[in-house]
Design a protein that fits this description.
mainly alpha; two-stranded antiparallel sheet; 2 strands; flat
Length: 146
């Protein structure tokens, strides 16, 4: 289902283009997502850092599906963490028609990416805790050397 903006959203898209210099696709993506990462729901407008981390991601990786590079249904507002971890992950199953999935089941594809990201972030969390523990010991030792 292609995005059909409301009157208020159309006004916002126009203003983003005129006042901020967004191109039309970027303005549509930010407006459709209400300024939130479509994967983790982080509010990218909460502060400047959040805004600075906003990226336009390709739901279906453009490396594998270059024909959908500029399709609005394939563009997703993403925070830098989700975008970086997702990388070239492809949510399409081998038996599925990517065009039909993108047009009719975009939300399901986003849910698949969310699940993939949850799994990846669990591993990052485990690794982070190990690195934190190891480096905390080194830091503690360095700070207490007289």
């Amino acid at each position: 289902m292609t995005f059909v903006p409301t009157t208020h959203q159309n006004n916002a898209i126009t203003e983003l283009q005129q006042k901020v210099g967004f191109n039309q696709l970027t303005a549509i993506v930010w407006t459709r997502a209400y300024g939130r990462c479509e994967y983790c729901k982080q509010d990218l407008l909460k502060n400047r850092l959040g805004y600075a981390t906003g990226h336009i991601d390709h739901l279906l990786p453009k490396s594998k599906y270059p024909q959908y590079k500029d399709e609005i249904d394939n563009l997703v507002l993403s925070c830098s963490s989700c975008n970086g971890v997702k990388s070239n992950y492809d949510p399409i199953h081998p038996s599925e028609n990517e065009h039909q999935m993108l047009l009719n089941y975009r939300h399901e594809l986003i849910d698949r990416v969310r699940q993939y990201l949850r799994d990846q972030f669990r591993q990052y969390d485990r690794d982070w805790r190990i690195v934190l523990e190891i480096l905390s010991d080194i830091w503690w030792e360095k700070e207490n050397v007289i």
